[in-house]
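>> received
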Amino acid sequence: MEGEPVSKSLVSVSLVMVLAMIGCGEERASLTVVNGLDDFVITRVYVYAEGSADRGSNLLRDALPPDSSVTVSLQDSLSSVLLFDEDGDSYLFTNVARGGNDSLAVTLDDISTTRFHYGDGPYALNVRNGLEGSCIYYLRISDPAEEEWTDYLQWNTLWPDEVLTAWVEEGSYRVVAEDQDGNAYTSRGISVDSTGASLTVEASDRDTSKIIATYGEGEAAVEIVSRLASWDVVELRFKPLGSPDWSENVIGIDTLDYMESVVIRLSPGTYRIRAMDEDSDSYLLDSLTVGIEEETCYIELNDILVE
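>> returned
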């Protein structure tokens, strides 16, 4: 930009983009992105062809402070410009046309509120809430390389028909959505590559449980759900409060993965339930009072026993 000092980072970005344009043999069209986010730093900028599921690499070598700007190139007649601030909030501009030396001022009014973006990968996994009348509070996606889970909604809520775009690496993923009532919806084997992937969370995806053990007359069904995102539950035992003996491992040779559940039918009374994960860490649900109504309880990390 004429009349303004140019930082080394801007020179590097511009040089990379110019070389890319020369290699493609196309005319370069520039877009100046201005940070108008008051006190928030822009940490990432992506420019990619409109409708593409591959956003490429972050064009910023250094963070972009408020009231500063960076110039990037548009290689396509219509482009999407996606930015992230230091809090992880996203700002998406679509149908940005090549007009030559255009300017795009990003303000807090441009923050994405109904189309969320999260993640560091290059490829788009679009997840739509197809649950009529139910919001999605958590949207966890497995990492095939690390065997861990990430909540891609963070502090946001996905209302019916809203879409979250999870930017991930190439691979096969499992997606678990949880609604406001604690119901889980699991989709497995979602394959993502440079063409992206799309998924609609529907009522038919809801996880169902089966009765695996009965104690006494078994009037009440107690559903036990694992919330241990990175560890499988390999043992699950219960006993009436005051009894010296635990039951056998009611899940046998099976395991409970994240948000998977089992149901135990119990007679009314007060029980202790003990779980153990694959690392041999134990979790205690103490003094669970069971009546004649169905009950749901969760195995949480804060239930871990320190022995």
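>> The radius of gyration is 25 Å.
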